[in-house]
Amino acid sequence: MSYKDTINLPKTKFSMKGNLIQKEPEFLKKWEKENLYAQIRKARAGAKKFILHDGPPYPTGDLHIGTGLNKILKDIIVRFYTMRGYDAPYIPGWDCHGLPIEHRVMQEIGSKAESMEKIEIRQKCKKYAEKFVKVQMKQFKALGVSGDWESSYLTFTPQYETGIIEVFGKLVEKGYIYRRLKPIHWCMRCKTALAEAELEYYDETSPSIYVNFKLIDKPKDIFDGIEDEDVYILIWTTTPWTLPANLAIALHPDFKYTAVRYKNPKTQKNEVTILADNLVDSIMNVLKVDAFERLGTSTGGSLEGIKYKHIIMDREGTVVLADYVTLSDGTGCVHTAPGHGLEDYLTGLKYDLPVISPVDESGIFTEEAGDFAKQSITEGNKSISEKLDELGLLIHIDQLSHSYPHCWRCKEPVIFRATEQWFVNIEHLNLRENVLKEIEKTNWIPSWGEVRLSNMLKERPDWCISRQRSWGVPIPAFYCTNCKESILDVKVIYHVRDMFSKYGADSWFYKDTKEFLPNGTKCPNCNSTDFEKENDIFDVWFESGSSHHAVLNKREELSFPADIYLEGSDQHRGWFQLSLLPSVAAWGCAPFKTVLTHGFVVDEKGEKMSKSLGNFISVGDALKELGGDILRLWTSSMEYRNEMNVSRSIILRMSDSYRRIRNTFRYLLGNLHDFDSKKDSVEYTQLWEIDRWALHKTEKLRASVTSAYESFQFHRVYHNIHNFCAVEMSSFYFDILKDRLYTFSKKSLERRAAQTVLHRINSVLVRLLAPVLVYTSEEVWMEMTHEDDNAACVHLADWPTPNEQYIDEELDDKWDKIIKIRTDVARELEKMRAAKHVGNSLEAAVDLYTDDVDLLNFLREYERDFPMIFIVSDVTICEEPPDSANEGEIFNKLFIRVKVSENNKCERCWNYREEVGKIEKYPTLCNRCAEVIETAELQN
C-alpha cells in the first residue's frame, strides 16, 4: 500500500485562481435566465419591508468609479436586509432630463440647434439618455447590483412625469407656488436659471473699485464739520457692471459713520466722503491718502432717506438701512441693485424699489443700460470703470481674487439677474420650520449631516423651480394672450397630468394649447378664453426631488417614506434637500427615515477625478481588468464617510485580500468534500478545545459583522472578515488542523470534529460575505453540500443564525495566551530556519521553562497539545532552565530552546517520533499512522 494514497488530501473544484472576468458574466447569465430577482421577491413576499430609494444618476457617459461605489454600497445594504428576512425590493432609476444631457446634445448638434424646434431637440436628448441608460445599466449589473432593472424608473416616462405634476399640483393647492420678477443665479452660456445645488465655486479675478456717489442732500445737520461743499458717499464693489442697476446704498442702522475730508488722489481736489468710522484708517491707506480730517460721526440710522445722484444714469438713489451690512470688507456702505442680488432684492421690497436688470440672457446690456447697451458685462466692467475714472468718481481700482459661483455644467461664471421665474415659498405655512423639525426626526449617518443640512435650510432662499431650457417636464402654467395674466389652477394642472399620462410631456410641444385646458377655462382677470403655454420647464432637481411620490407612492412593491436614502455628501445641497422640501410641503413628512452620506472619490493626491487630468477611473475599465467582486471588496474596505483616495494601483492591491479570502474558502471546501453534516457532525462536547475556540471566534465574527452591517460600517465588515481569514484561521487554526485532517483516519472522531467546525465556519462565512462578494459567494455555494440548507442560491439563503453555546470567553482568554506563547516559539523556530539547522518545523523539538508558578502550571496543562499547536515533533516542559535557552519577547519569564529532533521521521505524517523504526510491521511509521494503516488494511 502506498502511504501517500492514505493521506486525506483536500479535493475541490473551487480553484485557487478566481478568473473573475471570465466567471462573473456566466453567473449574470445564469441569474437572469433563472430570474433570480423575482425568486428573491417571491421568497420574501409578505415579510416586513425595507426600502432603499435610489437617487437617480445622470446617463451622460461611462460610469465614474464614484458612481459605481455608490451603487455597490446600496446593493450591499439591500442584500444584507434581504438575507435578514426583509422584503427589500430595489428599483434603480435615472435622472434623464435636465441640463447635463441637453448640454451634451447641444454640443453634438452645434449651430444647427438654432433652427431646430424644441420637440426635435427633445427627441435627440431622449435618444442620448436611452443610449447611456443601457450602457450604465450593463455596467451596474456587471458590478453585481441586483434590482428590478426591467422596471427601472426613468424621469422621461409618462408615469414619472405625471408624478411630478401631481407633486406640483399639491404645492399649488396649498399655496406654495408663486411667480415673480426676482434675481436668481443665471448662466449666460447655458441661458437658464440655476439652483444653489447647480453651482460650483472656483477662484475668479474681479475688478475691485471704490466709487463716490454725490449726495443731493448735504447732511450738514448730521456732521457738524461739513461746510458748503460737495459731499459723497463711498462704496466698494467687485461687479462694476451692476452699477447701471444701482438704486440704493445700504448702511447698517447701528454702525458709526464718519464724514472725512481728504484730497482725492485722482482729481487732487479736496472732497468730503462718508464711510464706516471703523474702516476710515484702512480705507485711506488703500486709497494712499496720508492726510485726512474727520468731520463728525453719526449712526447709519440717521442717514436713512438721504438722496444721491446716480453716477452714470439719469436718476436719483436713496440711502437705506440693512442689517446684513458688515465691516469685514468694503466701506460699510453697500451698493444696492435689487435686480442683481438677493439681499438687495429683499431690501428693495422693504423700501418699495423697482427691480431693474438691464442685462439679457447672454449677459449683454440692454437699452435700459444707456450708453453701455450692447456691451457684454465683461466689457461693461472695463468701460464703466473708465467712465467713472473720467468723471473723477473712481477713487481706486485693483484686482481681487475670490471664490465665485460657476455653472456646474459649462464651468463658466454665473451672474445674479432678475427675471420672471416660478418659486416655492419656503416661509409659507411655516415650511422652513416644518422641514427643520423633520430633519431632527431623521437618523443621519454620519450625524454631522443633520447640522449641515439644517444650516443650509436655515439660510436658503425661496426655491426657483423654473428653467429656460428644452429638455424637461414643462411647468403646467398658461398666460392669457389678452391681458398677460398667468393662470395656475389645480384643475388645469390635473388636466395636464392626464394628458401627460396618455401622451407624455412631449405632447406639450406639438399639441394645441386648448387640449391642455378643461372646457370652459377663462382668464380670471378678463374672461378671455385665449391662452398660450408656459415655455419654461421644471428645475431638474424638482423632477428628481419628486421621486418620493413618482416612485415610492406609485409602485405597489415600495412604500413611503423610504427607510433610507444613500448618496454623496454633495446631495445635502441637492437631492436630499430638494426631496425633503416638496415632500414636507405636499405630504407633511420627510421622504426618508435614515440618510446616509459618503465622501467623494479622489485620486491618490486628494485631487478631484476628471478625464482632463488623466486621473479618471471608469467602472467599465475597472471591470475589464479586475472584475466586479474586486471592486465590491474595495468598496467595502473604504471608510466611505470620509474622502476616499483611489487609483488603479490601490484597487489592484485589493486582489491580495481577495486571494486570502478565496484561499480560505478553498481550504474549507477542499476539506469538506467527504463530510455529510447530517451523518458526520460531532457533538459540541466531543470537540477538541481548539475546535471550540474556533467556533467561539466564528460566533464572535458573526456578531461583529452583523453589527457592522446594521450600522452601515462596511469597512468593519471587510477588516473583521479579512483578519478572521488571514490571521485567526489561515495562520493559526487551519495551519494546526492540517495534521489532523490529512493524517488521521478518514472517519475518525478527531477528523470529523475538525470537519464539523469547518462546516460551520464555511456556512457562516459564505453568508457573511454574500452581500459583498456576490459572485464568489455563489461559486462557493455551488461547491457546498446543503444537507441543512436547500436554498438553490446563496442570495436566497438566510443570514447565519446565532448560537450562544459557542461563546466561551474564558476559553478565548486561555487560547489568547497560547497564541502569544506560540508567537514566542515561532520566533525561535525562525532563527533555526535562518541558520539552516531545520527546514520544516517538524524537524524541531522545543523545550520550555519558566519559574513563574502560574505560567508553569499552564504550560503543563497543554504539554500534550503543544506539538500540534507549534507544529513541531516534540515539546518538553523542563524542571530546570535548559542550556542556551532564549527568553520570550511576549512572556519575559518564559525560556525557550529549539533543537533538532533526535528521532526518526514518520514516512506518512512527517512527524519525528521516538517509536519510528520500532514497530515491526510498520518500521517507517509512528504509532498513530500505524494504527490508521492497520485499520485501513483490515477494512480493505
Q: If you had to describe this structure to a student in words, what would you say it looks like?
A:
By secondary structure, the protein is of the alpha/beta class. The protein has 5 domains: 3-14 and 655-807, Isoleucyl-tRNA Synthetase, Domain 1, CATH 1.10.730.20; 47-163 and 545-637, HUPs (Rossmann fold, 3-Layer(aba) Sandwich); 167-191 and 417-440 and 461-540, HUPs (Rossmann fold); 205-410, Alpha-Beta Complex (Isoleucyl-tRNA Synthetase, domain 2), CATH 3.90.740; 817-939, Isoleucyl-tRNA Synthetase, Domain 1 (Orthogonal Bundle). The chain is built from 27 helices and 33 strands. The strands form 9 sheets. Strands 6, 7, 8, 9, 10, 11, 12, 13, 14 and 15 form a 10-stranded mixed sheet that branches. A hairpin with a 6-residue loop joins strand 12 (307-309) and strand 13. Helix 17 (628-637) crosses helix 21, helix 20 (689-710) runs antiparallel to helix 21 and helix 20 crosses helix 24. The longest helix has 30 residues, at 714-743. The mean pLDDT is 94.
Kindly estimate the percentage of residues that lie in beta strands according to DSSP. Answer: 15-25%
Annotation, overall tally of beta strands:
33
* Secondary-structure arrangement, i.e. CATH architecture of the largest domain: 3-Layer(aba) Sandwich
Instruction: Supply Rg.
Output: 38 Å
Nearest-integer average pLDDT:
94
Q: What coarse outline follows from CA principal-axis ratios?
A: elongated
